[in-house]
Design a protein that fits this description.
single chain, about 375 residues, alpha/beta, Rossmann fold, binds ligand GMT
Length: about 375
């Protein structure tokens, strides 16, 4: 099949999933056309059957445009690429504005090409941004107009029905997946050098937005740090980074917290970690948690959103209510002190991640593409 993919190309789970999906589909013989305003960050180097079409945003210098109409430029590009490359499917990730531009592109094609539009909902497009008054109606409309809609968890599917009604749509849950060749546990004896010898290594990766509660990450770590020598790796960047740095100084743990900034490939850092913290306000899925588990790292997370679908409390991680830093910290310390329990959780985490292997999940998308084309 010839498949166009539009996503946010910079850092973020939806862009990561969309790009990995494109690469997996290309490996399976499909022709993939990324239509985005920059090369997707997980698209590294040449891959057979993968093409990138850049949405030109430079024309925004026209003086009339205080705000460049990016959405129109994207819809035009999707239409142009679909027509020229004879696409069968246009699969857009994150509803706003991608489901709307895809709808426009398909309508512009009319009878010239029977393009089918698939929208994958990822998280804040439904739980936050899509519910703002200025986006609500157009988001619901665009979802309903898609030929098929998927959500990355049952929680997000149910939340879409609850918030939007969406009476005309049948939303299918297709969970996120992980590339187990890249995200795999460390072989015995692998040494990282990322922390002083004898330190437990704790990791967090995110876009440091409010929803991630990065100050809670520091507070949980501070409890671990009081109990044992440990280092926290803060991977990523975003608006709440300063707050997190301040919290680390105020709690007296700054010397053992390493803010590493944005890193494209985090697998080696995860492999070197003993525990992963994700105390978010909400997560539709928590791709970062899945990638940590695939590397054999148990996860301490909030019992919120779709996280309980990915992390099983007491089996491959720890779940506590949002904001319960005391309980999260205490249970993290207990786990790290017990070598046998930690090893068991580590194995369970790897086992759990296998359920989300690319070769389990990607065929679900292929099946959906076949269905909408039939
Ligand atoms: O919603 C966001 O904060 C960003 C979004 C994204 O586009 O990166 O993340 C969402 O999609 C990821 C991939 O499906 C999920 O793993 C994240 O849980 C989800 N984030 C939230 O729901 C907060």
């Amino acid at each position: 099949m010839k498949i166009g993919i539009t996503c946010y190309p910079t850092y973020g789970g939806s862009g990561a999933v969309a790009t990995e999906l494109g690469l997996e589909l290309a490996k399976r013989g499909h022709e993939i056309h990324f239509i985005t305003y920059a090369a997707p960050f997980r698209l590294r180097g040449y891959a057979e059957r993968v093409y990138f079409h850049e949405v030109d945003t430079r024309t925004g210098r026209y003086p009339l445009f205080d705000h460049f109409p990016y959405t129109l430029a994207l819809a035009s590009k999707q239409h142009e690429v679909a027509l020229r490359e004879r696409l069968d499917i246009l699969h857009v990730h994150y509803a706003i504005p991608h489901a709307t531009t895809a709808y426009l592109a398909r309508e512009m094609l009319g009878r010239e090409l029977p393009l089918k539009v698939i929208t994958t909902l990822h998280g804040t497009d439904i739980t936050l941004v899509g519910q703002e008054a200025s986006f609500f109606t157009i988001t619901r409309f665009s979802i309903e107009q898609s030929d098929a809609v998927t959500a990355v968890s049952d929680y997000l599917r149910d939340e879409t029905f609850r918030a939007f009604g969406c009476v005309q749509c049948d939303i299918k849950t297709i969970p996120n997946f992980v590339n187990l060749d890249e995200y795999r546990p460390a072989p015995d004896g692998e040494c990282s050098g990322i922390a002083p010898a004898g330190h437990k290594v704790i990791a967090h990766t995110s876009n440091f937005r409010e929803v991630k509660r990065v100050k809670d990450v520091i507070r949980i770590f501070s409890r671990i740090h009081h109990a044992m020598p440990s280092t926290l790796l803060m991977i990523g960047d975003g608006p709440d980074r300063d707050d997190a740095e301040r919290e680390a100084r105020e709690l007296g743990v700054a010397d053992d917290v390493r803010f590493l900034g944005r890193i494209d490939s985090v697998a080696s850092l995860l492999r070197a970690s003993d525990l992963f913290l994700l105390p978010s306000q909400s997560e539709s899925f928590g791709l970062a948690a899945l990638e940590a588990m695939a590397c054999g790292v148990p996860v301490v997370a909030s019992r919120a959103g779709g996280l309980p679908e990915v992390v099983s409390d007491g089996v491959n991680g720890i779940l506590e209510p949002v904001g319960s830093v005391e309980a999260m910290g205490r249970r993290a310390v207990d786990l790290l002190r017990s070598e046998s329990r930690h090893a068991a959780m580590r194995d369970a985490a790897v086992e759990n991640a296998r359920r989300y292997a690319a070769d389990q999940i990607v065929p679900m998308y292929e099946q959906l593409y076949e269905q909408v084309r039939a």
